[in-house]
Design brief:
Elements (H helix, E strand, L loop, with lengths): L1 H27 L5 H28 L8 H7 L11 H28 L3 H24 L1
Helix pairs in contact: 1-2, 1-3, 1-4, 4-5
Length: 143
Amino acid sequence: MEQLVEQMKTVLATTFSLYLKSHNYHWNVTGPDFGQYHDFFGQFYEDVHASIDNIAEHIRGLDEFAPGSYTRFSQLTKITDETTIPQPAVMFSRLASDNDIVISEMYKAADMADEARQRGLVNFLEDRIDFHEKMRWQLKSFS
């Protein structure tokens, strides 16, 4: 169970990093397709952000405390921080790669949850995986 908890903490931090990067892109995207890109990034970051609380609550459901600081998130995340404002095509490419990382981390957690017979957590993760897999093809369609 300890490995599952640690993996869920990684999922939380990695998802938070994806949220933060997509929100950054929403604020800072430019170009002739600004409206379309701004709206897409906005919907994406809102959907990702909405899942963060549920991930933390599932960690609490495993009788552990959820990390909640930038320092701890930066230690746990599998996504690199964005410190520049790239061109829109690069934004979509980076989000697509980062989204794939989130999917991979969620699959690891789902396998561990299944092994631990945590059915509710498995269902939650499968729903999130389904969302991120849909986003996979949408993000790659912009690239």
